[in-house]
Design brief:
With 342 residues, the chain is α/β, with parallel strands linked by helices. The chain has 15 helices and 14 strands. It has a four-stranded parallel β-sheet, sandwiched between helices. The protein is globular and about 60 Å long. The protein binds 1,3-dihydroxyacetonephosphate and iron/sulfur cluster.
Length: 342
Protein backbone atom coordinates (compact mmCIF):
# COMPACT_ATOMS: atom_id res chain seq x y z
CA UNK A 1 0.00 0.00 0.00
CA UNK A 2 1.23 3.52 -0.81
CA UNK A 3 1.21 5.70 2.28
CA UNK A 4 3.88 8.37 1.73
CA UNK A 5 1.47 10.98 0.41
CA UNK A 6 -1.29 10.45 2.98
CA UNK A 7 -2.86 13.18 5.06
CA UNK A 8 -4.44 12.98 8.51
CA UNK A 9 -7.85 14.31 9.54
CA UNK A 10 -6.09 16.82 11.81
CA UNK A 11 -3.94 18.15 8.95
CA UNK A 12 -6.99 18.41 6.70
CA UNK A 13 -8.96 20.22 9.39
CA UNK A 14 -6.09 22.66 9.94
CA UNK A 15 -6.18 23.44 6.19
CA UNK A 16 -9.94 23.86 5.88
CA UNK A 17 -11.05 25.20 9.28
CA UNK A 18 -11.22 28.89 8.27
CA UNK A 19 -13.59 28.23 5.39
CA UNK A 20 -17.16 29.24 6.21
CA UNK A 21 -19.06 29.90 3.01
CA UNK A 22 -22.79 29.51 2.24
CA UNK A 23 -24.00 28.12 5.55
CA UNK A 24 -23.29 24.49 6.26
CA UNK A 25 -22.53 23.55 2.62
CA UNK A 26 -18.94 24.63 2.89
CA UNK A 27 -17.80 24.41 6.52
CA UNK A 28 -15.44 21.87 7.98
CA UNK A 29 -15.44 20.29 11.44
CA UNK A 30 -12.80 17.80 12.63
CA UNK A 31 -15.52 15.13 12.42
CA UNK A 32 -16.26 15.95 8.77
CA UNK A 33 -12.52 15.81 8.03
CA UNK A 34 -12.27 12.41 9.76
CA UNK A 35 -15.02 11.13 7.49
CA UNK A 36 -13.34 12.46 4.31
CA UNK A 37 -9.73 11.50 5.04
CA UNK A 38 -9.86 7.77 4.07
CA UNK A 39 -11.33 8.62 0.66
CA UNK A 40 -8.82 11.43 0.12
CA UNK A 41 -5.95 9.06 0.88
CA UNK A 42 -7.43 6.40 -1.40
CA UNK A 43 -7.54 8.95 -4.25
CA UNK A 44 -3.94 10.01 -3.53
CA UNK A 45 -2.89 6.33 -3.87
CA UNK A 46 -4.87 5.93 -7.10
CA UNK A 47 -3.17 9.00 -8.56
CA UNK A 48 0.27 7.53 -7.91
CA UNK A 49 -0.72 4.14 -9.25
CA UNK A 50 -2.11 5.56 -12.50
CA UNK A 51 0.42 8.41 -12.89
CA UNK A 52 -2.55 10.75 -12.87
CA UNK A 53 -2.76 14.45 -12.16
CA UNK A 54 -5.84 16.25 -10.82
CA UNK A 55 -6.52 19.75 -12.17
CA UNK A 56 -9.14 21.68 -10.21
CA UNK A 57 -10.89 24.95 -10.96
CA UNK A 58 -11.15 27.39 -8.03
CA UNK A 59 -14.98 27.07 -7.99
CA UNK A 60 -14.83 23.37 -7.02
CA UNK A 61 -15.33 22.29 -3.39
CA UNK A 62 -12.32 22.97 -1.10
CA UNK A 63 -11.90 19.33 0.01
CA UNK A 64 -11.09 18.54 -3.64
CA UNK A 65 -8.81 21.55 -4.18
CA UNK A 66 -6.84 21.10 -0.95
CA UNK A 67 -7.35 17.35 -0.41
CA UNK A 68 -6.45 15.82 -3.77
CA UNK A 69 -5.79 18.61 -6.30
CA UNK A 70 -2.36 19.02 -7.92
CA UNK A 71 -3.08 22.32 -9.64
CA UNK A 72 -5.78 24.89 -8.94
CA UNK A 73 -6.45 28.01 -10.93
CA UNK A 74 -8.37 29.81 -13.64
CA UNK A 75 -9.08 28.50 -17.15
CA UNK A 76 -5.89 29.99 -18.58
CA UNK A 77 -3.58 28.64 -15.86
CA UNK A 78 -5.20 25.21 -15.94
CA UNK A 79 -4.89 24.92 -19.70
CA UNK A 80 -1.18 25.73 -19.36
CA UNK A 81 -0.88 23.07 -16.62
CA UNK A 82 -2.67 20.62 -18.94
CA UNK A 83 -0.19 21.42 -21.72
CA UNK A 84 2.86 20.94 -19.50
CA UNK A 85 1.96 17.84 -17.46
CA UNK A 86 3.88 14.61 -17.93
CA UNK A 87 1.14 12.51 -16.31
CA UNK A 88 -0.57 9.76 -18.35
CA UNK A 89 -4.04 10.64 -17.10
CA UNK A 90 -5.60 14.04 -16.40
CA UNK A 91 -8.61 14.20 -14.09
CA UNK A 92 -10.24 17.58 -14.68
CA UNK A 93 -12.43 18.52 -11.74
CA UNK A 94 -14.30 21.43 -13.32
CA UNK A 95 -16.67 21.36 -16.32
CA UNK A 96 -16.58 19.55 -19.67
CA UNK A 97 -15.24 22.38 -21.85
CA UNK A 98 -12.14 22.56 -19.61
CA UNK A 99 -11.62 18.79 -19.90
CA UNK A 100 -12.01 19.10 -23.68
CA UNK A 101 -9.35 21.82 -23.76
CA UNK A 102 -6.97 19.50 -21.87
CA UNK A 103 -7.73 16.69 -24.34
CA UNK A 104 -7.15 18.96 -27.38
CA UNK A 105 -3.75 19.92 -25.95
CA UNK A 106 -2.93 16.28 -25.08
CA UNK A 107 -4.59 14.06 -27.68
CA UNK A 108 -2.48 11.07 -26.57
CA UNK A 109 -3.45 11.28 -22.87
CA UNK A 110 -6.54 10.02 -21.10
CA UNK A 111 -8.71 12.90 -19.81
CA UNK A 112 -11.42 12.08 -17.28
CA UNK A 113 -14.27 14.30 -16.08
CA UNK A 114 -15.78 13.45 -12.68
CA UNK A 115 -18.56 16.08 -12.60
CA UNK A 116 -21.95 14.55 -13.35
CA UNK A 117 -23.45 17.92 -14.35
CA UNK A 118 -20.59 18.96 -16.58
CA UNK A 119 -22.25 21.68 -18.65
CA UNK A 120 -21.83 25.46 -18.49
CA UNK A 121 -24.52 27.98 -19.42
CA UNK A 122 -22.05 29.78 -21.71
CA UNK A 123 -20.61 26.70 -23.45
CA UNK A 124 -24.17 25.39 -23.96
CA UNK A 125 -25.32 28.69 -25.53
CA UNK A 126 -23.89 28.16 -29.03
CA UNK A 127 -23.31 25.28 -31.45
CA UNK A 128 -20.72 24.77 -34.19
CA UNK A 129 -23.51 24.92 -36.76
CA UNK A 130 -24.53 28.37 -35.52
CA UNK A 131 -20.91 29.60 -35.71
CA UNK A 132 -20.66 28.37 -39.31
CA UNK A 133 -23.80 30.36 -40.20
CA UNK A 134 -22.46 33.47 -38.43
CA UNK A 135 -19.16 33.17 -40.29
CA UNK A 136 -21.02 33.28 -43.59
CA UNK A 137 -22.93 36.37 -42.47
CA UNK A 138 -19.86 38.14 -41.02
CA UNK A 139 -17.21 36.84 -43.38
CA UNK A 140 -14.80 39.76 -42.83
CA UNK A 141 -14.69 39.28 -39.06
CA UNK A 142 -12.09 37.45 -36.95
CA UNK A 143 -14.00 34.98 -34.78
CA UNK A 144 -12.82 35.08 -31.18
CA UNK A 145 -14.26 32.48 -28.83
CA UNK A 146 -14.20 32.51 -25.05
CA UNK A 147 -12.64 29.32 -23.65
CA UNK A 148 -16.11 28.52 -22.24
CA UNK A 149 -17.09 26.84 -25.54
CA UNK A 150 -17.17 23.25 -26.78
CA UNK A 151 -14.31 21.76 -28.82
CA UNK A 152 -16.60 21.77 -31.88
CA UNK A 153 -17.19 25.52 -31.51
CA UNK A 154 -13.46 26.24 -31.00
CA UNK A 155 -12.78 24.30 -34.22
CA UNK A 156 -14.88 26.91 -36.11
CA UNK A 157 -13.13 29.94 -34.57
CA UNK A 158 -9.82 31.76 -35.15
CA UNK A 159 -8.59 32.65 -31.65
CA UNK A 160 -9.55 31.42 -28.20
CA UNK A 161 -9.40 33.78 -25.18
CA UNK A 162 -9.98 33.51 -21.44
CA UNK A 163 -11.11 36.07 -18.87
CA UNK A 164 -7.40 36.60 -18.07
CA UNK A 165 -6.38 37.73 -21.57
CA UNK A 166 -9.47 38.69 -23.60
CA UNK A 167 -8.79 42.44 -23.72
CA UNK A 168 -5.06 42.18 -24.49
CA UNK A 169 -5.56 39.58 -27.21
CA UNK A 170 -8.41 41.39 -28.95
CA UNK A 171 -6.32 44.58 -28.90
CA UNK A 172 -3.46 42.71 -30.64
CA UNK A 173 -5.55 41.04 -33.37
CA UNK A 174 -4.65 42.82 -36.64
CA UNK A 175 -8.25 42.77 -37.98
CA UNK A 176 -10.44 45.61 -36.65
CA UNK A 177 -13.60 43.54 -37.17
CA UNK A 178 -14.11 41.11 -34.28
CA UNK A 179 -16.96 38.67 -33.64
CA UNK A 180 -16.81 37.58 -29.99
CA UNK A 181 -18.77 34.59 -28.69
CA UNK A 182 -20.67 33.35 -26.76
CA UNK A 183 -20.76 35.80 -23.77
CA UNK A 184 -22.88 38.89 -24.38
CA UNK A 185 -21.90 40.61 -21.12
CA UNK A 186 -18.18 39.99 -21.64
CA UNK A 187 -18.70 41.24 -25.20
CA UNK A 188 -20.18 44.48 -23.85
CA UNK A 189 -17.29 44.78 -21.39
CA UNK A 190 -14.90 44.21 -24.30
CA UNK A 191 -16.46 47.05 -26.32
CA UNK A 192 -16.10 49.40 -23.32
CA UNK A 193 -12.52 48.35 -22.62
CA UNK A 194 -11.45 48.85 -26.25
CA UNK A 195 -12.98 52.35 -26.18
CA UNK A 196 -11.19 53.06 -22.87
CA UNK A 197 -7.88 51.97 -24.41
CA UNK A 198 -8.52 54.09 -27.53
CA UNK A 199 -8.51 50.96 -29.75
CA UNK A 200 -10.83 51.30 -32.74
CA UNK A 201 -12.54 47.92 -33.21
CA UNK A 202 -15.91 47.00 -34.60
CA UNK A 203 -16.89 44.33 -32.04
CA UNK A 204 -20.01 42.20 -32.47
CA UNK A 205 -21.00 39.60 -29.92
CA UNK A 206 -23.33 36.65 -29.38
CA UNK A 207 -26.12 36.50 -26.78
CA UNK A 208 -25.00 33.80 -24.25
CA UNK A 209 -24.79 34.54 -20.52
CA UNK A 210 -23.37 32.89 -17.41
CA UNK A 211 -26.35 32.20 -15.17
CA UNK A 212 -24.18 32.78 -12.05
CA UNK A 213 -22.60 36.13 -12.95
CA UNK A 214 -25.58 37.73 -14.70
CA UNK A 215 -27.38 37.80 -11.33
CA UNK A 216 -25.19 40.49 -9.76
CA UNK A 217 -26.37 44.09 -9.92
CA UNK A 218 -25.29 47.54 -8.85
CA UNK A 219 -27.89 47.63 -6.03
CA UNK A 220 -25.84 45.00 -4.15
CA UNK A 221 -22.70 47.08 -4.62
CA UNK A 222 -24.32 50.32 -3.40
CA UNK A 223 -25.74 48.54 -0.32
CA UNK A 224 -22.37 47.06 0.60
CA UNK A 225 -20.53 50.33 0.01
CA UNK A 226 -22.93 52.09 2.41
CA UNK A 227 -22.50 49.44 5.09
CA UNK A 228 -18.77 48.80 4.54
CA UNK A 229 -17.20 51.93 3.00
CA UNK A 230 -13.70 50.39 3.16
CA UNK A 231 -14.65 47.24 1.24
CA UNK A 232 -13.16 46.58 -2.20
CA UNK A 233 -15.54 45.24 -4.83
CA UNK A 234 -14.00 42.53 -7.00
CA UNK A 235 -15.84 41.17 -10.02
CA UNK A 236 -15.46 38.84 -12.99
CA UNK A 237 -15.81 40.08 -16.61
CA UNK A 238 -18.83 37.76 -17.04
CA UNK A 239 -20.74 40.32 -14.89
CA UNK A 240 -22.83 43.14 -16.37
CA UNK A 241 -20.86 46.21 -17.61
CA UNK A 242 -22.50 48.46 -14.98
CA UNK A 243 -21.34 46.03 -12.27
CA UNK A 244 -17.78 46.01 -13.65
CA UNK A 245 -17.84 49.82 -13.87
CA UNK A 246 -18.67 50.03 -10.15
CA UNK A 247 -15.97 47.51 -9.16
CA UNK A 248 -12.49 48.26 -7.81
CA UNK A 249 -11.05 45.34 -9.74
CA UNK A 250 -12.25 43.15 -12.63
CA UNK A 251 -10.37 40.04 -13.72
CA UNK A 252 -10.18 36.27 -14.06
CA UNK A 253 -10.60 34.18 -10.91
CA UNK A 254 -6.81 33.91 -10.43
CA UNK A 255 -6.34 37.63 -11.06
CA UNK A 256 -9.06 38.36 -8.48
CA UNK A 257 -7.18 36.31 -5.86
CA UNK A 258 -3.93 38.02 -6.78
CA UNK A 259 -5.57 41.45 -6.39
CA UNK A 260 -6.79 40.50 -2.91
CA UNK A 261 -3.37 39.25 -1.93
CA UNK A 262 -1.59 42.38 -3.07
CA UNK A 263 -4.02 45.08 -1.94
CA UNK A 264 -3.91 46.50 1.60
CA UNK A 265 -7.71 46.32 2.06
CA UNK A 266 -9.20 43.84 4.52
CA UNK A 267 -12.83 43.67 3.39
CA UNK A 268 -13.95 42.38 0.00
CA UNK A 269 -17.24 41.92 -1.81
CA UNK A 270 -16.61 39.15 -4.33
CA UNK A 271 -19.01 39.07 -7.25
CA UNK A 272 -18.30 35.55 -8.43
CA UNK A 273 -18.83 31.90 -7.55
CA UNK A 274 -18.48 30.94 -3.85
CA UNK A 275 -15.47 28.68 -4.47
CA UNK A 276 -13.28 31.73 -4.78
CA UNK A 277 -14.58 33.10 -1.49
CA UNK A 278 -13.64 29.80 0.13
CA UNK A 279 -10.11 30.05 -1.29
CA UNK A 280 -9.82 33.60 0.02
CA UNK A 281 -10.76 32.44 3.52
CA UNK A 282 -8.26 29.60 3.40
CA UNK A 283 -5.37 31.49 1.85
CA UNK A 284 -5.74 34.95 3.39
CA UNK A 285 -7.34 34.40 6.81
CA UNK A 286 -6.80 38.02 7.88
CA UNK A 287 -8.96 39.27 4.99
CA UNK A 288 -12.76 39.30 5.30
CA UNK A 289 -15.69 38.78 3.01
CA UNK A 290 -18.76 40.96 3.05
CA UNK A 291 -22.03 40.19 1.24
CA UNK A 292 -22.85 36.85 -0.33
CA UNK A 293 -21.62 34.74 -3.21
CA UNK A 294 -23.39 32.36 -5.62
CA UNK A 295 -22.98 28.68 -6.48
CA UNK A 296 -22.38 27.22 -9.94
CA UNK A 297 -24.26 23.93 -9.98
CA UNK A 298 -21.97 22.54 -12.68
CA UNK A 299 -18.71 23.16 -10.84
CA UNK A 300 -20.27 22.02 -7.57
CA UNK A 301 -21.28 18.65 -9.08
CA UNK A 302 -17.67 17.44 -8.66
CA UNK A 303 -17.30 15.13 -5.66
CA UNK A 304 -14.52 13.04 -4.10
CA UNK A 305 -16.63 9.92 -4.73
CA UNK A 306 -16.81 10.69 -8.45
CA UNK A 307 -13.07 11.33 -8.63
CA UNK A 308 -12.49 7.86 -7.13
CA UNK A 309 -15.00 6.41 -9.61
CA UNK A 310 -13.29 7.87 -12.70
CA UNK A 311 -9.89 6.72 -11.45
CA UNK A 312 -11.08 3.16 -10.82
CA UNK A 313 -13.87 2.41 -13.23
CA UNK A 314 -14.55 5.20 -15.72
CA UNK A 315 -17.67 4.99 -17.86
CA UNK A 316 -17.53 6.07 -21.55
CA UNK A 317 -19.18 9.37 -20.51
CA UNK A 318 -16.36 10.11 -18.03
CA UNK A 319 -13.76 9.96 -20.83
CA UNK A 320 -13.28 12.94 -23.10
CA UNK A 321 -13.36 11.70 -26.69
CA UNK A 322 -13.17 14.24 -29.52
CA UNK A 323 -13.14 13.64 -33.25
CA UNK A 324 -9.52 13.86 -34.58
CA UNK A 325 -10.30 16.48 -37.19
CA UNK A 326 -12.06 18.66 -34.57
CA UNK A 327 -9.04 18.29 -32.27
CA UNK A 328 -6.69 19.54 -35.00
CA UNK A 329 -8.79 22.60 -35.83
CA UNK A 330 -9.61 23.47 -32.21
CA UNK A 331 -5.93 23.15 -31.32
CA UNK A 332 -5.03 25.87 -33.83
CA UNK A 333 -7.57 28.17 -32.16
CA UNK A 334 -6.13 27.50 -28.66
CA UNK A 335 -2.53 27.76 -29.88
CA UNK A 336 -3.36 31.17 -31.37
CA UNK A 337 -4.21 32.25 -27.81
CA UNK A 338 -0.81 31.07 -26.50
CA UNK A 339 0.94 32.86 -29.40
CA UNK A 340 -0.87 36.14 -28.71
CA UNK A 341 -0.11 35.78 -24.98
CA UNK A 342 3.60 35.05 -25.49
P1 LIG B 1 -11.82 31.91 -15.03
O1 LIG B 1 -11.06 31.52 -16.24
O2 LIG B 1 -11.68 33.35 -14.68
O3 LIG B 1 -11.49 31.03 -13.87
O4 LIG B 1 -13.37 31.75 -15.35
C1 LIG B 1 -13.97 30.54 -15.63
C2 LIG B 1 -15.42 30.58 -15.43
O5 LIG B 1 -16.12 29.69 -15.81
C3 LIG B 1 -15.98 31.74 -14.77
O6 LIG B 1 -17.34 31.59 -14.62
FE1 LIG C 1 -20.14 28.32 -16.78
FE2 LIG C 1 -20.97 30.35 -15.27
FE3 LIG C 1 -20.46 27.98 -14.13
FE4 LIG C 1 -18.44 29.51 -15.06
S1 LIG C 1 -19.82 29.97 -13.36
S2 LIG C 1 -18.71 27.29 -15.38
S3 LIG C 1 -19.42 30.43 -16.88
S4 LIG C 1 -22.08 28.43 -15.65
Amino acid sequence: MITTNHTTAEELYETLKNIKVTGSVCQYSLRKCEEMTPLINEIRDLKEKKNAVILVHSYVNPEIIYGVGDYVGDSYGLSKNAMETTADTIVFAAVRFMGETAQILNPEKEVLIPGLEDGCSLADAITAERVRALRQEFSEYTFVCYINTTAAVKAECDVCVTSANVYDIVEKIPNDKIYFLPDELMGQNLVKEMAKRGVAKDVRYFEGKCYVHEEYDTEQIFKIRTEYPQAKVVSHPECKPEVCDQSDFVGSTSQMLQYMETTDAHQFLMLTECGLSARLQKEFPDKHLVGTCTLCRYMKSNTLEDIRRVLTNPTPRDRVVIDKEVVQRAKKCIEAMFEFSA
